[in-house]
Design a protein that fits this description.
Layout lengths: L2 E2 L2 E2 L16 H14 L4 E8 L5 E8 L9 H16 L4 E5 L2 H13 L1 H15 L4 E4 L20 E7 L3 E8 L2 E9 L9 H15 L7 E6 L2 E3 L2 E4 L8 H8 L2 H8 L5 E5 H13 L4 E6 L3 E6 L41 H11 L9 H13 L3 H21 L7 E5 L7 H16 L1 H6 L1 E3 L3 H13 L9
Parallel strand pairs: 5-6, 7-10, 10-13, 14-16, 16-17
Antiparallel strand pairs: 1-2, 3-4, 3-5, 7-8, 8-9, 11-12, 14-15
Length: about 475
Amino acid sequence: MDTNNGLPLVAPRVIPVLDPGFRPGVLAAHGFRTLVDQSSGAVPVRLALEQSDGSVFRFDIRVLPETHRQASANFTFVERLIKFLLWSRGGWRIYIDGPESIATYLASHYRDTATGRFDAHLVAQRMFDHPLEVVHTRDLPPEHSETRPLGRHLDGCRIGFDLGGSDRKVAALIDGRVVFSDETVWDPYYKPDPQYHFDGIMDSLAQAASHLPRVDAIGGSAAGVYVNNRVKVGSLFRGVPEEIFNTRVRDLFLEVRKAWHDVPFEVVNDGEVTALAGSMSLGSNAILGIAFGTSTAAGYVTPDGNITSWLNELAFVPVDYNPAAPSDEWSGDYGVGAQYFSQQCVGRLMPAAGIESPADMPLPERLKQVQALMNDGDVRAKRIYETIGVYLGYGVAHFADFYDLRHVLVLGRVTSGPGGNDIIAGAQRVLEVDFPELAQRISFHVPDEHDKRHGQAIAAASLPEIVRTA
C-alpha cells in the first residue's frame, strides 16, 4: 500500500487517465479515520484556530495511540488537516489539546521547514498581523465567528472589475443592466513596479466609465486578502519587493478610490465574488464557487446567504496526498489546489497527454492551444479535461467535509468551451462511484459563456452600497 510518512494512501476507484499516481486527500483522510476507529485506545484531539478579530473555529478529531505500529501517520494526517484549515479558515494561533508530540511536531514544521514557514508567514503574519503560534493546552477558547451579507446592490450607475492573473475584466451597469463588458490581457504576477497594476486598473475603469452617464459606485475582486480595501496579501503583487508592497500596494485601492472622487468603493477576495455571482445567478445559497483561472479562486456563501471571515484560499489546500505530487511554484508544497484547478493544471498535463508546446509559451496560450484541439475533437485534449474532472470530483468530496454544500459553481477560463462539460461530467461520476450520498446532495453548475468570462465583474459591481441622502 502507498504511504506518506506512515499515512496510508488510497487509490481512487475513478483513476484520472493522465495521472495514475493521484492519491486523493479525501480518501486518505477517510481511510485514516477508519484505521483509528478499528484500533483500540484511539486518542481524542481538540483543535482551534484563532483569528485576529477574536473569531475561533473548533475541530475535534481522533488519532492513533502512540504505541500503535502506524502512529507516525498521526503527524502527516494532522499536518495536512491543519494546512487545509489554515488556508480555508485562516488564523494565527493554533490550539491543540492532545498528545504533546503532535504539538511539538507542528511547531517544528512551521518553524523549520520551507513550506511551513511559507504558510506561517503568509497566513498568520501577512493576513492576520501576528507570528504563528502553536499552543499546547487543555483550555481551548469557545467557537465564535460572525457572518455578514455581501453585495447584491444593483441600483445606480456602477462599475465592476475582476483582476486575474492573465486578464482583467470590467463591466458597466445601469440599475443592474449591463451596458458594457470587456477584458484586457495583462501580466501582473512578476511586475516589480505597482504603477503597472494601478495604470491597468485605471484604464479598465475609464473604459467602463465612458459608457455611463456618471459613476455612482465601484466594486472589484482580486486574488488575495483585503480588509477595508487595503491589501493584506495578493498573488497579483508577488513580484513587488516587500518594502514597496508596504509603502504602495497596501493602499493601492484607496489611491484608486481617491482618483474616482471617493465614490462608494469596495474590493474583496475574488473567491467571495465567485460565490456571490453563483448565488445571484442561481437564486440559492450553500454555494462553493471555484474559478479555474491562472490559479484557483474560491468563495463560499452560507446556507443563510451570507459570507464568513474564512479565507477560502483553496489554491493552497492539499488535495493530493501523494508526496510525489506536483509542487506549487509559489509555496513549494505538493498536491495543493492550484496544480489541479487552474491553467497551471492544463499546462502540466499537456506533456502527459502528448501535446507539445514551446517551453516559454505562457499558460493562457497553452490553454488556447488545448481548447482549439478540443474543438477539433482531439482525444488528447479530451483526456486533459477528463483528468481535471476526476480531480474536481475528489476535491469537492474533500471540501464537503469542511463546508455545508448544496451547490458547486464551476467557472473560469479553463471551463470555457466543450471541455467544461467534460470536467463536470467527470466530477459527477466520481461522486456517483465513490460518494453516492454526496451525489444526491450536491449539484454542479456551469454558467453560460458570458457569465463564465464576465459574471465575476458584474457581481463585483454589486458590492458597494450607495447611501442616498434625503
